[in-house]
Each structure stands twice: as structure tokens, then as C-alpha cells.
Amino acid sequence: MDPADATGDPAAGDTAGDPTGSPAGSEGRSVGRDPLLFLQALQTLWSTREPRQLREEAWRGFAALDDPLTALLDMLESSRGWRRKGPSLEAWVTCELQRWLQARPLPGPAQCSSRLKQLQARAVRVLAESPPSLVEPLVSIFQMQDADRSPLLTHIHRLYQEGKFKEAAMLGLKLRLQPELSVEKMSTPLLLQDKVTLVERYVAGFPDLQRRLLALLDSWCQPGFDIRAVARQHPQVTCLRLERLSPRVLSRQALSLVERQGLDPALCPNAVTQQRLAALRYLYCKRFVERSMSQENWTDHVQGLVGQDEWLREELLRLLASSDNEAMAARCALDLSLPEERLPAAVAAELRQLKLQERTPEMPFEDRRVDYYQLPIAREDIHFLASWEDLARHEEELLRPGQVVGVDLEWRPSFGTGGRPQASIMQVAVEGRVFLLDVPVLSRPAGGQVSQAFSRMVSQLLSDPSITKLGYGMAGDLRSLGASCPELAHVEKQLRGSLDLLQVHRQMRAVDKPALGRGEARGLRGLSLLVQQVLGKPLDKSQQLSNWDRRPLSEGQLVYAAADAYCLLGVYQALCREPASFSLPEDLARSLRPGCSERSGAQELPGLQEASALAWQVPVAENEDAAPEVPARAFRVVCDNMLQGLARSLRCVGADVLVLGAGEDHRRAAECCATTTTAVRGCRRCRPCPGPWRSGLCPHRGSVLDGWPRALGACFPGSSSSWCVRASLPLVSQ
């Protein structure tokens, strides 16, 4: 072990720390009066690497010295080993003397005495040659922060001229000399070397210096600025990292400084503009390349980003001119009122044609709903809660013990233009319903009746270990919720009984299976990829980047928000049913408990089969005769588009399923029924079951788990047509 790593206070021993308590102490006193003999005595122990004995001997020697401060300077001035990089006995003795003085403060020279000034003058000369590790001990031992500033500033300037920019900044930082040094001069070489963390430490605690640093970074973000011109002015700077000084990176650093230090973003207009440009390019990619964003959402965000900024408007025109889709570019130019004369000829011609038409054609991707996961509940089962009365009406259903719920949050994207995102919508999905909570309305004013009721309900939901909470990246969602509602600032620590499907997804992806990699090859990621891998179709993310602060929310936003939370229940159901199919252990919940729940001491979640039965299984009536089991392959099923989830589940077990399109009449199912075995129609609203039904689940949605063919054969014929408003067709016709 290196003596520098030794810990413990030898003075805490019985006699080891007392210079007069033992013969060893007497020996230390006899040689301690001469600093060079004291150093020579320690050299033997230093070479044997006996840390505890070395420290005990050093502390006895410090106590025996008549003037430890003068003795230290004598030792450092008479030796050159500490000037080199790496461990040395002299450097170790300096650090130990600092610890010894902190443990046993002794009366030293007065701060304004001539003797202290003489020691400080000698210490400055030592500092001029010392490595960075000795700066802090020497500053502390000789009270350098109170010394005469002139020689210290001279030494810092000398280090700077020698190209030791880091050492100069560190010394100025330790001596608190930043206000007397040019922050632009000290920071520029460090920024060129990508030492941003050191620069931020250098200006910490000095608001004026922080604003000046921000102004420097912002000046480098000006359009057309060439950072290489700055590098040429500092030829002594080595290890340049100019690739880390692009306008985009610099603007991100500037806005990060604004957020951490609580500065006004108006101090860095160029940085804000660069971040807006990066966001504009990102939106262009989402709309014109990926085509995963609706025209309405794209226009809304671009208008907010560009505003009246002429430079950003020019950049937008360049982006539109680079597109090979003239029709789409013309549509965007029309929605944004861009001048026709600034557009390419082909785009301008399309724009004139659009102006003559009464309506604009729909974009192709908006008609691809059948390619995506469809919400398996009716639109009437999506509830938007924005008042105290709404919370009170649905509180019992939201907080029902023993249920499984999906939790998600949505917020307006900031595209890196500064500020922590504020949650706009909190989605809570339960069996058959989704509740969308209007966070800005329910959390304000802080301390009000509505805010208290909202915070109490959310805290109770998240802290109840009997309610299984499903999420995907729950930690980030809860931090956003805490930032939006101060009363929920520590809600992450209250979380009990949760399962983050992000951790499950990572375990699935860790297994190299071609079947799980197909979605990634198509560009899917995150929750959409998980839904595609488990349920067969990805999520439609076209509303993900929409303006979630807008009220009222559009119909597309409401359905998207509900699907984002409800799909968690479907994924959990599928994983509970067949964990081995996805290379997961049999007890998923117990083996993949989320990190946040572990930290907070969460109780164990129910096992897969137990949770599956509690949350999903529909009991068969006790008095009904069980129908003979039918192989899954024998079923041929017709589903309307409200039962997309059921159709996917039936296909997974081998049934032949036909799904009606979104525009097809429901009577089409009756026509198909003449040639198929089973026809299933969705209900407008699930109601409590009469008779032996106790779970309150819609039969044709609740019996797709364990032994579903037997459940279909036994339960469906016995259910009345009034139980399910639209269940009027024969369900099993074998």
C-alpha cells in the first residue's frame, strides 16, 4: 500500500501520538529538531512502505519540531524529488503536515506579522515549481489566500506564459484570485483543450465572471465564426480539441451553464439561435426523411422555433430547397407563409398549385394506422381529468388495490433550447380505461385544494405496494413530474411495487436473437421497439413531439397518450404469459425489480403467473359445464378494428384472424362469419358483469391468457347479449 493511501489518526492511540509517552517518542524528539535529520529518519520507513508506522513517526516528528512551517520550507528547498511527477516523500510530508495542523491547531504567526509574510514569500517560490497536488496543502499551511497578491499574481502569469494553463487556473482557483485575473484570458486555452469542467469550477461563486464566460461562449456561437482563428492566437496550446468546439456543442455548453447557474438565457442569444437551428434540422429529418411527424405538429414547432428570426428563416428556406419532395416542401411553405420568390422554381410551382386548391392532400403516413399498435379500448374509455371533481369521481378506480396500472408522462419538447421539461400530461392506464391527468392545471396553484388532492392521489398510487406500476424509463418520468409539481419533488423515493419495462427490454436485447433485432433494423427504438417485439406492431410516434401544452388536446394526441400507457399492460400480459419466448426468467417481476424500488425498499412484486391471474384472468362460472378444449389452430376469427389487441394475441397462439379495416362497416363481420368459425365484435363500453361474473372485465378481452380456447367456449355462450352492448353476433359456431 502506498503511504499516501494510509488512513487513521495516530494521535488517537494510547501513546503513539505522544512524543513523550515512549522511548520512540524521545527518539523522535531528539532527531526532530533538525528538519533534514527528521526527513532522513522517515526515508527508511518510506522505502519499506510501512504506512501506519511512517505516519506515527511523522506526527511525532511534527510535534518535536520547533517551527514546523519553517522546517517544511527547509525540506522542500533542499530537495528536488518533489518537483517531479509521481509520489515523493517530501510531497507526502507536506500533505501529512496539513492533516496534522488541522487535527492539532497550534498558535501560529499572526496574519499580518512580518514573519508570516517572509514564510509566504518563500512559499510562493516553492509554489512556482510544485506539481498541482501540492498547491492545496501549501495554500492551506501558509494561509496563502491572505498573502500579498502581487507575487502570487506574478507567479500565475508566469505559469500562463510557460503554457501551464491548467496549473495557472488551479492556483488562481485555490487562492481565490479569479476576480483579479482576466476570465477570458484564463478560460480560452482551457476551452480549446476541452477542459470545460475546470472552467466552470474556476468561475463558480462569481456571478460576474459567469456572465463574462457566458458572453465569451456566446461570441463563439455567432454564425460564420471560425474557432481556428482563436486557436492560431494561442500557439502554445497543445492537444487542441477543436472538434468539440462546434457551434452546436458550444451552444449546448452555454445553455447548460445558464441552467445550472440560474442565469438569464438572454445573455447568450447566439447560443439559443444555434440550438434552435439544431432543432430545426432535427424536425426537418423527422418530417422529410423519416416522415414520422404530422404536418400540424411540424408547423407548430417550426413556427415557435423560427419566429421572426431572419437568419433562421433563411436556414429553413435552405432546408426546404434541399428536399426532393416538392409537394411536401410547398405544403410546409404554405403553412409557414414563406415568400414564394425565395423558393426553388419547382417548389414555387407546387405552392401556386396548392393555393388554387380548396384543400391540401393528406400526407401518406397519416393513412398507415393499420401498420401500428391500435388502442384496444373505445374512445369513450379515455378520460381527461382536469378538476378536483374529476379526481374525486375516479379516485376509487385509480387507487384500487391489487391492480396493475401503466404509468407514463408527456411534455412539450424543448429541443435542447434550455430549461427542464415540465410535465403536461400524466397517463394512468387501468384495465379497460385510461386516465389522462392535466398536470399544469391540477398542480397549480401550489398548496391549493386541487394541487393537494392531486399530489395526495399520485403519492398514494405510487407508494401503494399492492398496485403494480408499469413504466418505461420511470426514473426520468418521475423526475419530470417532480420538477413540474414541487409537492411531488421526492416522489421517486416513495415508489413501491413498480416494474420498469425498460430493464426488461434491456435483458431481452442482451440475448442475441434475430427475431428481436428486426425492429431495430427498421429504425425502431425504445418503447415502440418493445411493443413491436412483443405485440407484433410498433407504436405510432407521430404525436410524440407535438405541443402537449396546447389545450384542448387534439384527438390524435389523446389517442396517442392513451396508447402509450395502455400498451404497457399488453406487453406485461404477454411477458407474463410466455416469458421463455422472450428469453426471460419465469419470475420476471422478482428477477428484474427496478433500481428505484430497490433503493426505497419496495416489497417484492407478485410472480408472473400470480400477477397474470390477479390482473387479467376472467373466472369461469362455477355452475357452467366446461366446454371441451379446442386447439387454437381450429379457430378462425373475424375482429373489427376495435379489437386489434385481441387479434394480435390470437395470432400469437396460432389462430387464423381476419381484422376489418378502419373504414369497413361492422356488418362486414357478419358476412365473413358465414365462412368462418368465430366472429367477435368490440363493445362500446364494458359494464359490470351480471350473474357469476365478478371481475368486471369484458369477456372477449379478458380471456386471452391461460387456456383461452376453453374460456371462449365455456364463457361466451353463457354471457347475455345485454352484458356487452355490441356482442350480438354468434361467438362460437362450431
TrEMBL record:
Any one GO MF annotation of this record: nucleic acid binding
Entries under InterPro entries matching the protein: 3'-5'_exonuclease_dom, Exonuclease_MUT-7-like, Mut-7_DEDDy_dom, RNaseH-like_sf, RNaseH_sf
Chain segments carrying region Disordered: 1-31
Biased composition (Low complexity): 1-21
GO biological process: nucleobase-containing compound metabolic process
Pfam name, any one: DNA_pol_A_exo1
Domain 3'-5' exonuclease: 382-580
Top-rank taxon: Eukaryota
CDD domains: mut-7_like_exo
Keyword entries, A-Z: Exonuclease, Hydrolase, Nuclease
Protein name as catalogued: Exonuclease mut-7 homolog isoform X2
Origin species: Ursus maritimus (Polar bear)
